[in-house]
């Protein structure tokens, strides 16, 4: 049996990105505590893992008219970068950007870095969503810039409210995987 790219990615996440521990071992960005943690940088910065992420994301957005892909630092940076790289040479290359949590206070002092123009249609990418508060920071910053944001694509949704929060903001959450797809 030949595995699909998505199945291969799931296996890599299970082996390299999922860490389990005792009860409430890990503090999440949401402030919640958990006995499992998705360390997606172990996957997004792995040669095979990043390649598979790009393929799976591009398969999900190939027939849509997004002009840019990016998200909140730092989890989205390697993902958006590899998607932009992989899209080069296709009929619709998609440049990347990222949103800073806070501006550096030096240089150009930009809150949004990379290839992005206001009034553009963008898709936001996230490595892991929990409650959705972090990704909402990126969505709001992009909307303030005049960008149209109607979808967020996450590699793993922990099923802890992100979909509902984003829905209230008029944003659809597309999950490549949910926590239920993994043995924790």
Describe the structure in your own words.
With 184 residues, the protein is of the alpha/beta class. It contains 6 helices and 10 strands, in the order H-E-E-E-E-H-H-E-H-E-E-E-H-E-H-E. It has a single domain, classed as Rossmann fold, CATH 3.40.50. The protein has helices at 5-17, 41-44, 47-61, 76-87, 133-144, 162-168; strands spanning 18-20, 26-27, 33-34, 36-38, 68-72, 96-99, 112-114, 121-129, 148-157, 172-178. The strands form 3 sheets. The chain has a 6-stranded mixed sheet with strand order 7-6-5-8-9-10, sandwiched between helices. The chain has a two-stranded antiparallel sheet with strand order 1-4. Helix 4 links the parallel strand 5 (68-72) and strand 6 (96-99). Helix 1 (5-17) packs across helix 3 (47-61) and helix 3 crosses helix 4. The radius of gyration is 16 Å and the shape is globular. The model has no long low-confidence stretch (mean pLDDT 91).
What's the structural blueprint in terms of helices and strands?
Layout: H1 5-17, E1 18-20, E2 26-27, E3 33-34, E4 36-38, H2 41-44, H3 47-61, E5 68-72, H4 76-87, E6 96-99, E7 112-114, E8 121-129, H5 133-144, E9 148-157, H6 162-168, E10 172-178
């Amino acid at each position: 049996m030949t595995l699909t790219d998505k199945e291969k990615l799931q296996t890599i996440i299970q082996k390299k990105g999922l860490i389990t521990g005792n009860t409430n071992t890990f503090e999440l960005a949401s402030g919640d505590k958990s006995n499992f943690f998705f360390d997606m940088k172990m996957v997004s910065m792995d040669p095979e893992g990043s390649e598979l992420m790009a393929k799976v994301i591009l398969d999900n957005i190939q027939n849509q008219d997004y002009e840019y892909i990016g998200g909140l630092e730092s989890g989205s940076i390697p993902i958006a970068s590899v998607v932009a790289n992989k899209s080069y040479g296709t009929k619709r290359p998609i440049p990347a950007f990222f949103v800073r949590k806070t501006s550096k206070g030096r240089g150009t002092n930009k809150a949004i870095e990379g290839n992005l123009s206001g009034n553009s249609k963008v898709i936001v990418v996230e490595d892991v969503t929990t409650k959705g508060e972090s990704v909402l920071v990126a969505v709001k910053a992009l909307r303030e810039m005049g960008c149209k944001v109607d979808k967020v694509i996450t590699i793993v949704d922990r099923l802890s409210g992100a979909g509902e929060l984003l829905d209230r903001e008029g944003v659809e959450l597309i999950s490549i995987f949910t926590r239920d797809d993994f043995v924790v």
